[in-house]
Amino acid sequence: MVRRSMSPRLDFEAEAIYQYPEHLRPSLAELPRAPGVYVFHGESETLPLYIGKSINLRARVMSHLRTPGEAAMLRQARHITFTRTAGELGALLLEAQMIKAQQPLFNKRLRRNRQLCSLLISGSRPEVVYAKEVDFSHTPHLYGLFANRRAALEKLKNIADEQRLCHGLLGLEKLSAGRACFRAALKRCAGACCGMESVDDHNARLLESLSHLQVMCWPWRGPVAVKEQTDELIQYLVIDNWVWLGTVDNLDDAARLTRASPGFDHDGYKILCRPLIRAEHDIIDLSAT
Ligand SMILES: [Zn+2]
């Protein structure tokens, strides 16, 4: 029987390295099996080809061989650099920031969205409000983040269809005084417009359908530090209003990062909301110290 000299993982690695373009192999050797952000550089020193993140830089970069698009990118690549982070959150935040700032050739284009809006449901009827006008990180009763007004109203209509809600009460259709809405006659509205159900019941069904889309207000009074640790590396991500202010190795240095200006950071919110609300990390409230 032949004894295998290497573990399956090393076999895989050896093969992956062998298949990799030769000029990139020295860069591969330096990549750690740790979280971070990696950059494929081409001829240009200023415009990178591709920026990505992983909890295992070495494995991820080696897997960039799978598609024709990736092969094209590898052919143009001259070398690979990386920045280690202490965890996945730090890698996600750094990746988003770097892609936004450097717009690499092979990353999907991230367009700034000036139309970002949400449904404000606190008064008698839903209202579309814009992130450029209302502070989404401190306004309660917001549901959903939409690319534009049309997408927000589309969502509202879909829920109305599913829940037989009244287009009149939702503000999607004008109601004439004393008359049921158009869809009530078709039995598509459960009849909150004509006393068939109470307005409270109607609104409760609306909120229930939207509850999973609720935009969470920033729950702390000021900035917090989120601790991440892998092996010997400890980092604190300083965050305020869902905005990443920076990363420090030492909590004493957190104070020099200034507070976030009001405004809503959609990328930061998408990356940070769930892990912070679920308290998956050690979170230090910096305004309490
Ligand atoms: Zn109706």
Automatic annotation (TrEMBL):
InterPro entries: GIY-YIG_endonuc, GIY-YIG_endonuc_sf, GIY-YIG_UvrC_Cho, UvrABC_protein_C
Alphabetical list of CDD domains matching this protein: GIY-YIG_UvrC_Cho
Ranges for domain GIY-YIG: 33-108
GO cellular component terms, A-Z: excinuclease repair complex
GO MF annotation terms: hydrolase activity; nuclease activity
Keywords, ordered alphabetically: DNA damage, DNA excision, DNA repair, Excision nuclease, Hydrolase, SOS response
Protein name: Excinuclease cho
GO biological process: nucleotide-excision repair; SOS response
